[in-house]
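URGENT: need a sanity check before tomorrow's submission.

F., can you look over the Isochorismatase family protein record below? I want to be sure the sequence and structure line up before it goes out.
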Amino acid sequence: MQFEPWIEERVLARQGVLHPYDQFDAATTAFVIVDLQNYYTQPGFQGECAPARAIFGQVNQLAAALRAKGGTVVWIKTSADGADQFWSHHHRHMLTPERSARRLRELGSGHAGFAMPPALEVLPGDLTVVKRCYSALAPGASDLDAVLKARGVRTVLIGGTVTNVCCESTARDAMMLDYATIMVDDALAAVTPHEHVNSLNNWMLFFGDVLTVAEVAERLA
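Structure tokens as predicted:
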């Protein structure tokens, strides 16, 4: 991703280099792929982010590269089971009654919306973590932090959808928990290019690095 000069100047002033990580130790690196379920990627579902289908190839490519080097691939899935209770504010006040009911139904763990599209290469050795709200690392949202720590992970690569909601929320919490955190530009998708770019601009300014799949692959050791 090409950043505007003023963003690069701010980043350079803060940390001295534009991209702080010359190399990633694959053994302590995880590719955390957020919400590429049918509900968020396929036509006919309420949460469809159509551009997400275009990143499947890049996601598969980076996952394969990291597996080949001995790294960890984690697929994050959202479940709305019980969300009308544990996330009641969101469902009662931030969604219309119709949208709330449809989200609860289509993201239920027994619904087709919860499943992963067959075009994604989810392998038996990969990990799957189910989360309850936007960030997989918010308190009580999932056991992702424990899963990563058990694997000795210190670097987190973020891909999936949507860039500016669940992906950015998870990434911010990862950074706050002291993981080196990288948003992977071409392995992320938002509903509009504007939202995607704005999210990554703000991320670069304050939270972590932004790299492409190719740039990450070059740094894997």
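My own read: The two ends are 22 Å apart (CA to CA). The longest helix spans residues 163-176. If you see anything odd, call me.
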